[in-house]
Amino acid sequence: MPLPSVWLQELTWEEVSDYLKTETIILFPVGSTEQHGPAGPLGLDSYAAISIAEDAAKQADVLVTPPMWFGDSPHHLDFPGTISLRTETLVAVTRDLIHSLARNGFRKFVIINGHKGTNLAALTTACRNVHQYELPEVLLALVDPLFLAKGIAGIKESVEHHAGELEISHLWYKYPHLLRSGKLPQTAVDLEPVLSPFVHKDLFGGGKDSIEIFWNSKEQRGFAPTGSFSDSSKASVEKGRRYHDYMVNNLVNFIRWLRTYQGPVGGR
Amino acid sequence: MPLPSVWLQELTWEEVSDYLKTETIILFPVGSTEQHGPAGPLGLDSYAAISIAEDAAKQADVLVTPPMWFGDSPHHLDFPGTISLRTETLVAVTRDLIHSLARNGFRKFVIINGHKGTNLAALTTACRNVHQYELPEVLLALVDPLFLAKGIAGIKESVEHHAGELEISHLWYKYPHLLRSGKLPQTAVDLEPVLSPFVHKDLFGGGKDSIEIFWNSKEQRGFAPTGSFSDSSKASVEKGRRYHDYMVNNLVNFIRWLRTYQGPVGGR
Amino acid sequence: MPLPSVWLQELTWEEVSDYLKTETIILFPVGSTEQHGPAGPLGLDSYAAISIAEDAAKQADVLVTPPMWFGDSPHHLDFPGTISLRTETLVAVTRDLIHSLARNGFRKFVIINGHKGTNLAALTTACRNVHQYELPEVLLALVDPLFLAKGIAGIKESVEHHAGELEISHLWYKYPHLLRSGKLPQTAVDLEPVLSPFVHKDLFGGGKDSIEIFWNSKEQRGFAPTGSFSDSSKASVEKGRRYHDYMVNNLVNFIRWLRTYQGPVGGR
Amino acid sequence: MPLPSVWLQELTWEEVSDYLKTETIILFPVGSTEQHGPAGPLGLDSYAAISIAEDAAKQADVLVTPPMWFGDSPHHLDFPGTISLRTETLVAVTRDLIHSLARNGFRKFVIINGHKGTNLAALTTACRNVHQYELPEVLLALVDPLFLAKGIAGIKESVEHHAGELEISHLWYKYPHLLRSGKLPQTAVDLEPVLSPFVHKDLFGGGKDSIEIFWNSKEQRGFAPTGSFSDSSKASVEKGRRYHDYMVNNLVNFIRWLRTYQGPVGGR
Amino acid sequence: MPLPSVWLQELTWEEVSDYLKTETIILFPVGSTEQHGPAGPLGLDSYAAISIAEDAAKQADVLVTPPMWFGDSPHHLDFPGTISLRTETLVAVTRDLIHSLARNGFRKFVIINGHKGTNLAALTTACRNVHQYELPEVLLALVDPLFLAKGIAGIKESVEHHAGELEISHLWYKYPHLLRSGKLPQTAVDLEPVLSPFVHKDLFGGGKDSIEIFWNSKEQRGFAPTGSFSDSSKASVEKGRRYHDYMVNNLVNFIRWLRTYQGPVGGR
Amino acid sequence: MPLPSVWLQELTWEEVSDYLKTETIILFPVGSTEQHGPAGPLGLDSYAAISIAEDAAKQADVLVTPPMWFGDSPHHLDFPGTISLRTETLVAVTRDLIHSLARNGFRKFVIINGHKGTNLAALTTACRNVHQYELPEVLLALVDPLFLAKGIAGIKESVEHHAGELEISHLWYKYPHLLRSGKLPQTAVDLEPVLSPFVHKDLFGGGKDSIEIFWNSKEQRGFAPTGSFSDSSKASVEKGRRYHDYMVNNLVNFIRWLRTYQGPVGGR
Fold it and tell me: Which helix (H) or strand (E) holds B26?
C-alpha cells in the first residue's frame, strides 16, 4: 500500500478515496481509560487496542480509524482518573462510526476491543443491531484478546483477572516507559468470598461452572483497594512480546481471509 | 415455605409481604420466542428458563416472577413466529422489573436466561448499570446454561449450536408433548465457510482462538434453511434429565449460598 | 385449524408458516403483575387477558402470542409483588412484537388488554404510531374489557373500580384455585374526598362529568390500605362466566369480521 | 386578583412571585394544529383550550401558562397545515413545563386539553409518571371536553366525531370570524364499514361495546376526504355558548374545590 | 395573497392547500417564557419572534405557524414563572413541526428565534440533522436577532446582555402595555468577576477573545438578583421601532430572495 | 508538577489521586475526523485541540484527558474518511466524561474544541445541562479557536472558512509531516450564490447581518468538490506559530485565573 500511513486521521480524503478503490476493510480500536492498579497507566486497554490494530494493519496493508479512548468501565469509577461511558453511549459511538464510513464504501469493519470483556455488551449490541436492522450489507467482526489469545494464554504463570500478568506484559513490551514496574502487585484478590464459589476466576480460563454476580465501583474499591485483582509479578517483556505477536498474527490471518470473504451466504 | 406457590403471579400481595419478612431472593426467568428448527417449538428458550427456575425455586423455597417470553433474537427474524425485542427494550424491561420489586424489599435477584448467550448483552447491561448507578444495595446474579452447565456438557455427542442436542434433550425431558421428535435434524451446518476459520463452533466449547462475525436473519435463513444449526439426532430424554438436574442442582446450591451473602464487601 | 395449539410458543416455525398461508390474524394478550387486594392474585389482569385470548382463539381458529405478564402499574408499586414497566417500555415491547411478526406476514393484530384502562396510554401510543409512521400496511385493533363488556356490566351489583366485582368474578370462574374467596372486601373506598367530586367512580360507568386527578402508589397505599378500591363481596362464579362468555363472544364476532376486513379504505 | 393579567407571559417574574404567596394553582392549555374540515380553522382545538382556560382563570382568579399550539395529531397529517408532535415529544413538553413551574412553588396544575381524546395518551403518560416517579408533591389534574361536558352533550342534534356540531359551535361562539360557516358539512362519514361494527361512533356517547381500530392519515384522507367526519350543519352560536359556559362553570367549581385540596391522602 | 390571515392556525386546510400551489415558504416563530427582569414580561422573547414573523409575513405574503412559547432557558429557572424545555425537547418539537409541514409540500422553513442565542443549540441541532439525515429536500434557515440586527445595533447606548436596551425597546414599541417602564434597571451586572476576564460582555459585540463559562439558575439568581443583566434605562420606543423595522426589512429581503432559491447547489 | 506526563492516560490512578490533592482542573480536547480538502489530513481538528491542550497543560501544570477524535461533522459525510457522531452522541460522551471525573474530585473542566463552531451545539448542550441539572458544583468552560483567537485573526490574508489559511497554518506549524503543502487550494468557494447574500463568509469575521442556511454533505460535495471552502495558499508555518502561541497564551492565562475561581457567585 503506497499510503503514507495506516492511520485514517493522517490521510487526506483523496487518499482514502484511492484506498477504497481496491480495499474496503478498516480496523477500529476501542479501549478504555480506567485504572489498572499501581503499576499500569489508565490508558492500558487503549494502548492494547492501538498496538494490536496498528501492527496488524501494517502487516495486512489496511487502514485503522483513530482510537476510541473511552469504554464501558463503571466498576472502576471509584478510582481517580477512570472515565466510563454509559453502555448506550458506546453503542452510539460505534454505530455512528460504522454509518459514517459505510456511506462512502467501507464494507468490512474489524473492531479491536482492548478492554477485555467489559466493552463487549456495548460492541456486540452495536454490531448485531447495525447489521440486522440498518446496514445489512456491511460486515462486522469483533476481536477481543480473551478470545483471540486463547492459544497463547498458557504462557502465563498466574490467574489472570483485571491488571493481570498478560496484559501487564503486553504494555511492558510495547510501551515500557508507561509501566511502573517497581509497583507490580505480588498477590491476587481471593474472589470466591467476594463473588461466590461460582465465580469465573481466570478471564482466560474455561470449563468451570459459573454464575455472574455484578459488583460496583464502591464495592471494588473495597475488595481490591490497590485497583489490581491479580498477581502480576510474573509479567515480563518477553511474555508481552509473545502475547502481542500471537494476537497480531491471528488478526493478520483473519484480515487476509476477510479480504475475499463475501459474507455468511457468500455469493449465493 | 407455607406459600401456596413459588410463582409470584399466583400470590396475593399480602402473601408476598409475608415472604419478605424472612427472605429477599427472587428468580426472574427470561426466555425468547424464536424458531428452533423443524422439531423445537418457538418457546423453547422460555420453557428452559421456566423449568429451571421453577424447579430450583421449589427446592430452595424462593419465589419466581412471571416469565419474560420475549428476548433479543434478531438473527431469527426471517423465520415466521420469531418475536425479537430490541436490545434496549429488554434492558428496560429488566431494569423496570428490578426497580419495582426492590421498592418493597427484594434485595437479591437471580436472572435465569434460557436463551443461551444472545440475551446476555441486554441482561448484563441492565444488571451492571442498575447496580452501579441506580440501586447499589440490590444484588444481581445472572445465570446462563452455557456457564451453569459446563460440567455436564460432556454428555453430549455432537457439536452444540442453535437447536443443539442438549437444549433439545432438555425440552424433550420437561415438555415431551412440545417436541416434534420425528423431525430432528441429522446434520449440522458447517460454520467455517460461513463465519471464518475463527468461528466459535460449539457454544459449550472452549479453548480455540475465535473472532466473532455478526450475521443477520436473512443470511441465517440462507445458510441454515431449516432453522437448526445442529445435528440433534443424538438428543434424548435421559440427557435432558441429566442436563436439567445438573443445572437445577447448581442453581439450588447457589441460592442457598446467596441466602447469607452480604455482597462483595460483606459486612466490612 | 389443524395446528396442535393456538399458542405460538407451542408451535414450530414451519407450523406458523403454514398458518400464514391462509390467515394473518394474531392475538396479543397483555396483562400486569400488580396487587389486586387481599383476595386476588398479582397476576389477575394477565389471567384475564390470557383466558379471553385463548378462548376466543380456539373458537375463531386464530393464533395467540405468548402473554406479556408486565404492564403499566405505577400506582400499585407500594404493594409488594407489583411489577410495573415504564410507559415507554411497554410501548417498546408492543412495537417490537408487531414489527417482528409483521416481517413474515402477520397483518392483523388484536391486542387484548387485561389490565383495564391503565395500559391504554402505552398500547394506544404503540398502535397509533406504528400504524401511522412505521407499518401502515399492518392493521391494529385494541380490546379492553371496559369497552368490550359495556353491554354486560349491568349484571354487577356494586360500583366497579380496582379489584371490583366483575374482575374478581372473572378470575373466580376461570382460575378458582387462585382466588382467596374468604378474603373478599365488603366495603369500597369512598373516592370523592380522595379524588374530587369530579371523580369517575365506576370504571364501567358513563355519563357523569369528570376530571382526572393523578395519584401515586404511596397515596394509594394511604387511601386504600388493603389494595382493593371496591366491594367485591357480590362476586360469583356465575357472574364471571357470563362476563367472560360475553367478552369472548364479542371478540369472536370481531375476529370473524376482521377476517375479510381490508382496512379503513377497503379495496378502494 | 390584582395581577394585570391571567396570562403568565404578560407578567413579570416578580408579579408571579407575588401570586405564589397566596396561590399555587396554574392552568396549562394544550391544543393542536390540525385540520378541522372545510369550515374550521387549523387552530380550533387550541382555541378551545385557550378560551376555556382563560375564562375559568378570570372567574377563579388563577394563572394560565402560554398555550401549547401543537398536539398529537398523526391521523390528520395528510391534510396540509396539520402539525403533529410525536407522542413522546408532547410528553416531554408537558413534563418540562411542570418541572419548571414546580421549581418555584406551583403545586397544582390543571391541564386543559382542547384536542378531545387524542392528546390524552401523552398527557396521561406525563402526569402519571411525573407524579409517581419525579414530583410526588405536585398535584396534577387533566381536563378534557369529552369528560367535562358529558352533562351538556345532550343539546347536540347529531353524532359528534371530529369537527362535530359541538366543537364547531364552540368556535363559532368564541371566534366567529374564524369559522367559514358557509362551508359546514351536512353529512357524516359512515364509520361502521370503515372501523367495524364495534366502532365508537359518537365521541360523547357511552354504553355500546366497542373495539378500537387504528387508522392513519392516508386512510383518513381516503374515507373522510373533506377532513370532517361529522354533520355539523346543526351547529350554532347558542349551542357554543351553552357548551362553553357549562365547561367553564365546571372548571371554576373544580378550581375552587382544588384550592383547599391537600392531595389524595389529605392531611393524613 | 388573498388568504384571510398569515397565521396558519386561522386558516382551513383547504386554504393552506391553495397557498401551496404557488408558495412553499413558512415562518416558525420560537420564543421563550423566561424572566426578563423587573420591567419585562415573561413572554418577551416570544413576542419578539411573533412580531418579527408576523410583520415580515405580511410584507412578503407568506405564512407563519403558531408560535412556540417555550424555549431552552435553564439558567432562568430560579425566577418564578420561567418555563424551560430540555434541549432535546425543543429539538424534538422543531423536528416534528418540520416533518409535519414538509409532508404536504412546505419546502422552505424560516425559523425565527426570539430568544437570542440560547435556543440556538437546539434549533441548530434540529435543522442540521433534519436536513442531513431525514429531509434533504427541505431547506431550512435560522434567524436570530443577534445576527440579523448587527447593522443596527450601533443605535444602542449601553452594553446589551439579558433584558438589555434593544430587546426592551423592541417590546416597548410593539407591546407598550406589557412593559413596566417605571421599573427599568439603571445599572448592569459586572460580568468579569462572575464569568472571567474572557467573558463575552455585549451579546451584539464582536472582536474580543472570549471563553464561555456556564452558569446555572441558582448562580444567576445570586449574581443578578433582579433578573436583568443590563442597564436598560436608555431603552425607548423609537429605538424599538428602528430595531424592529431593520430586522423585518432584512427578513423580508431574505424571504424574497428565498422565493427563487433552489438550494445550495441550485438547479445543478 | 512532578507528574511524569500531562496526559491522563499515561498516569496511574494513584498519580491522579496525588494531583487531586492540590488541583482540580482538567482539559478535554475534542476534535473531529473530517475531510480538510486536498492538503489537510482528516484529523486536522483533533490535532488542533490536542496541540493547544497539551502545550497549555504543560505551561500551566494541569492534566489533559485523552482526546476525543470524533465530532459532529454531518456536512462532510460525502467525503471518504469522514466520521461524524450524531449530535446527541457527542453530548453523551461529554456528559459521561464529566460525570466520571467529577466523581473523584475534578471540579473545573476546560473543554478545548478543535472543530471550529460545528461541535458547539453538542458541547454547549452538554455543559449547560450538566451544570444546571446534574452537577451544579462542577465548573465548565468551553474554548473554541473562533473565539479564543479573535485578536490574532488579523494576521491572515484571506477569508477563512473550512480548511482556511489559519487552521492550515496551524497544522503546518505543529504537524508539518501531515500537510500536503503542494496541494493547497488557491481559490475559495463563492458562498453568496450558495447560501444567500446573508451568508456569514469569514468564520472569524463579525459585523455583517447574517442568516444561516443549512446544507448537507451531498450539497457540500456539489458546491465544494475539493472539500475546501477556502483559499489557503497564504498559509505558512510562521502564521501557524503565531496563531498557536496566541491561543495557548490565552488559554494559559485563563487556566491560571481559573485556579482561584470559585464559581459565578464566588464565595458569596
Answer: strand B25-30
Q: Inter-chain contact B142–A212, Cβ cutoff 8 Å?
A: yes
Element (H, E) at E192: helix E192-195
Name the minimum distance, in Å, from the CA of B210 to any CA of chain A: 5
Q: On the CB side of F195, how many CA atoms lie within 13 Å of its CA?
A: 22
In this complex, the residue of E10, E16, E89 whose CB is nearest that of residue D92 is E89
Three-state secondary-structure class, residue A81: coil
The grid cell for D241 is 355558548
pLDDT at F266: 87
With contact defined as 3+ CB pairs under 8 Å, the chains touching A are: B, F
Q: Which amino acid is at C100?
A: S
Q: How many residues does chain A have?
A: 268
> Residue C84 is placed in which grid cell?
410495573
Buried b (16+ CB within 10 A) or exposed e, C110-135: bbbbbbbebbbbbbbbbbbbbbbeeb
Joined together, the cell numbers standing for residue C12 give 414450530
What is this structure's pTM?
0.98
According to DSSP, the residues that pair with C7 across neighbouring strands are C64
Q: What would the DSSP string read from start to end of chain D?
A: ---S-SBGGGS-HHHHHHHTTT--EEEEEE--B--BTTTB-TTHHHHHHHHHHHHHHHHHT-EEPPPB--B--GGGTTSTT-BB--HHHHHHHHHHHHHHHHTTT--EEEEEE-STTTTHHHHHHHHHHIIIII-TTSEEEEE-HHHHTGGGGGG--S---TT-HHHHHHHHHH-GGG--GGG--------HHHH-TT----TT--SS---EE---HHHHHHH-TTS--S--TT--HHHHHHHHHHHHHHHHHHHHHHHT---TTTT-
CB contact under 8 A, B8 and C43: yes
Contact criterion met (CB < 8 Å) for E12 and D68: no
Which of D79, D209, D249 to probe by mutation at the C interface, max C CB count within 10 Å? D209
Is the CB of residue E114 less than 8 Å away from at least one CB of chain D? no
Cα distance between residue D214 and residue A106, in whole Å: 42
Q: In what order do the strands lie in the sheet with A108-113?
A: A63-64, A25-30, A108-113, A139-143, B212-213
The answer to whether the beta carbons of residues D142 and D120 sit under 8 Å apart is: yes
pLDDT of A169-191, one tens digit each?
A: 999 999 999 999 999 999 999 99
Kindly calculate the radius of gyration of chain A based on its CA atoms and give it in whole angstroms. Answer: 19
Q: Indicate the SS3 state at residue A77.
A: coil
pLDDT digit string (tens) for F150-179?
999 999 999 999 999 999 999 999 999 999
0.85 surpassed by complex ipTM: yes
F155 touches chain A (CB under 8 A): no
Query: Are the C-beta atoms of F90 and F119 separated by less than 8 Å?
Result: yes
